[in-house]
Automatic annotation (TrEMBL):
Pfam families: Aldedh (PF00171). GO terms for biological process: gamma-aminobutyric acid catabolic process. It comes from the Bacteria. One of its GO terms (molecular function) is succinate-semialdehyde dehydrogenase (NAD+) activity. Residues 21-481 form the Aldehyde dehydrogenase domain. The keyword Chloroplast does not apply. The active site is at 258. This is NAD-dependent succinate-semialdehyde dehydrogenase. Belongs to the aldehyde dehydrogenase family. Keywords: NADP, Oxidoreductase. PANTHER family: SUCCINATE-SEMIALDEHYDE DEHYDROGENASE, MITOCHONDRIAL.
Length: 486
C-alpha cells in the first residue's frame, strides 16, 4: 500500500463510538480546512450533548471487561498500537500536516513521539504496584492497591493533535480506564486516524471513543458534568482550563490541566552565544511559534544584547516558510484566520507602545492568508502588553536585563509557570537560577527536553498534574486501601 493509499484509508469523515464509525445524531457536519491554502479536506460530524452522552455510556459499558484484563494483556495491545503508528508514520504525518499546517519534518517527529508515548505506557501498565502497610492494630493485615479511576474524558488541542492523544489516552488505557476524546475542531482527523489504528491493534469496542464538534462548549459541558466521567485531562488555554475546572466542581472530578505558558529564555553574558542563538531559534519558532513551551520572552543580558540580535537575525534567514508538504519548507502557516488576527494585533499594539521592529512584523499574503513573517521585536519593556501575552506565533520578543537578580525577577513576573530556559557556563548560576525559576520545567543550555520519560507540566496558572514519565500513569489511578482484621 502506498502512502497515498494509507492516507485515504486513515482519513475518516465519521466519529468513532462503541467500535463503530458514526454520524452525528442530527446528521449535521462541519468542515476541516487545510490552513496552508484554506481548501476543504473533508467534513466530519457536528456532535452535541446527546452524542457525547452516548459515547460516555459506551465507555462505561466497556470499562468492566477492559479493567479486568491482565496488565500484560493491555500492555500487548498498546505495544501493537505503537507498532502500527510507526508502520503508518508517513501517512499519519501527512494527515497531520494537511489539517494543522506544520512542516512535514515536524509532523514526522510528532508521530514518532506519539508511538514512543504509547510504547512507554504499554511498559508502565505492568508496573502498577501497590503496597503492604504497617499494621495499625494487632491482628490486622493492611494493603493499598492502585485501581483505574474509571471513564476518562480527554480534550486535546490543535497544535499537537497526534502526540496529545497519545500522552493522555495511552496512560489511561494502560491503567485500565476507558476514554472519550474530544479533539480540537481544527484537527479532528489525526485523532480519528490514531483511533482507527488502535482498533486495528485490538482495543475493544467502547474503550476509545471520539466525539467531533466545531465548538467545544456543549460537548465539554457534558464531559464535565456527567457523573460517569471520573477524570478529565485537558490541554489548552488557561482561560478555558478555568472554565472546565469550575464545571467539574459539581462532580469533584480528578483533573489534569496542561495550560498556557509565558516561557522565559534567559541568555547570560557568559553563555555560548552561538548555542543560545540556535536554541532560541529551535524553541521560539517550533510549529511556527504555536506551542505552550515556546520561548515567549527572550531575556538577553545587556552586554551581549546587540550581538545576539545580529546572530539571531542571521539564523532566521536559514528558515523557509511555505506549505508543509513542499520540499525544503521548515515552517508552515498559523492554524487559522483568528490566529493571524491575534498575532498581527499584538505586534501592532507593541509597536504603538514603542517597540522596534528588528525584522518582519507583517502577514505574508503571497504564501497564503494564514502566514505571518518571522519577526523580531526589540526595545521592549515590562509594561508593554506583549510581556504578559502568550504570543502563539513566529514573533520573537527580545528584552534586556542587567544582572542575575533582574533576570530571575523578570522571568517570574507572570502568573504562568510551565517551561523556562537559561544559557550560561557558570555552574553555580545554573543551580541558583534553576531553583529560583518558578516553573515546572527548566532547560539549561538546551531547548529540547520533552520526551515520554519526562514529567511534563507546570505550576501556578499553567496547570495541574503531569504527563509522561513514570508519574504520568498515576493521574489515571486511585489508591484503594484495604484493612483485614483477623
Amino acid at each position: 500500500m502506498t502512502v497515498s493509499d494509507q492516507v485515504k484509508a486513515l482519513i475518516h469523515n465519521q466519529s468513532f463510538v462503541n467500535g463503530e464509525w458514526v454520524n452525528a445524531l442530527s446528521g449535521k457536519t462541519f468542515s476541516v480546512i487545510n490552513p496552508a491554502n484554506n481548501e476543504l479536506i473533508t467534513e466530519v460530524p457536528e456532535q452535541t450533548q446527546e452524542d457525547t452522552s452516548a459515547a460516555i455510556a459506551a465507555a462505561e459499558a466497556a470499562l468492566p471487561a477492559w479493567k479486568e484484563l491482565t496488565a500484560k494483556s493491555r500492555s500487548l495491545i498498546l505495544k501493537r498500537w505503537a507498532q502500527l503508528v510507526n508502520e503508518n508514520l508517513e501517512a499519519l504525518a501527512t494527515i497531520l500536516t494537511l489539517e494543522q499546517g506544520k512542516a512535514l519534518v515536524e509532523s514526522r517527529a510528532e508521530v514518532a513521539s506519539s508511538a514512543n508515548y504509547i510504547e512507554w505506557f504499554a511498559n508502565e501498565a505492568i508496573r502498577i504496584n501497590g503496597d503492604t502497610l504497617p499494621r495499625s492494630a494487632n491482628g490486622n493485615f493492611e494493603y493499598m492497591q492502585k485501581l483505574p479511576i474509571g471513564v476518562v474524558a480527554a480534550i486535546t488541542p490543535w497544535n499537537f493533535p497526534n502526540s496529545m492523544i497519545a500522552r493522555k489516552v495511552a496512560p489511561a488505557l494502560a491503567a485500565g480506564c476507558t476514554v472519550v476524546i474530544k479533539p480540537a475542531e481544527d484537527t479532528p482527523l489525526s485523532a480519528l486516524a490514531l483511533t482507527h489504528l488502535a482498533a486495528d491493534a485490538g482495543v475493544p469496542a467502547g474503550v476509545i471513543n471520539v466525539i467531533t464538534a466545531s465548538t467545544g462548549a456543549e460537548v465539554g459541558l457534558e464531559l464535565c458534568k456527567n457523573p460517569t466521567v471520573k477524570k478529565l485531562s485537558f490541554t489548552g488555554s488557561t482561560a478555558v482550563g478555568k472554565i472546565l475546572l469550575e464545571q467539574c466542581a459539581s462532580t469533584v472530578k480528578k483533573l489534569s490541566l496542561e495550560l498556557g505558558g509565558n516561557a522565559p529564555f534567559i541568555v547570560f553574558e557568559d553563555a555560548d552565544l552561538d548555542a543560545a542563538v540556535q536554541g532560541a531559534i529551535a524553541i521560539k519558532f517550533y510549529n511556527s511559534g504555536q506551542t505552550c513551551i515556546c520561548a515567549n520572552r527572550l531575556l538577553v543580558q545587556e552586554s551581549i544584547h546587540d550581538e545576539f540580535l545580529e546572530k539571531y537575525n542571521a539564523a532566521i534567514n536559514q528558515m523557509v516558510q511555505g506549505h508543509g508538504l513542499e520540499e525544503g519548507v521548515s515552517h508552515g502557516p498559523l492554524i487559522n484566520e483568528k490566529a493571524i488576527t491575534k498575532v498581527q494585533s499584538l505586534v501592532e499594539a507593541t509597536i504603538k507602545q514603542g517597540a522596534t521592529v528588528y525584522r518582519g512584523g507583517k502577514v505574508l499574503p503571497e504564501l497564503g492568508s494564514n502566514f505571518f513573517q518571522f519577526t523580531i521585536l526589540s526595545d521592549l519593556a515590562k509594561d508593554m502588553d506583549i510581556f504578559s501575552s502568550e504570543i502563539f506565533g513566529p514573533v520573537a520578543a527580545v528584552y534586556k536585563f542587567r544582572d542575575e537578580s533582574e533576570a530571575v525577577a523578570m522571568a517570574n513576573d507572570t502568573p504562568y509557570g510551565l517551561a523556562s530556559y537559561l544559557y550560561t557556563k557558570d555552574t553555580g548560576r545554573i543551580f541558583r537560577v534553576s531553583e529560583a525559576l518558578e516553573y515546572g520545567m527548566v532547560g539549561v543550555n538546551t531547548p529540547k527536553f520533552v520526551s515520554e520519560t519526562v514529567p511534563f507540566g507546570g505550576v501556578k496558572e499553567s496547570g495541574i498534574g503531569r504527563e509522561g514519565s513514570v508519574h504520568g500513569i498515576d493521574e489515571f489511578l486511585e489508591m484503594h486501601y484495604v484493612c483485614i482484621s483477623a
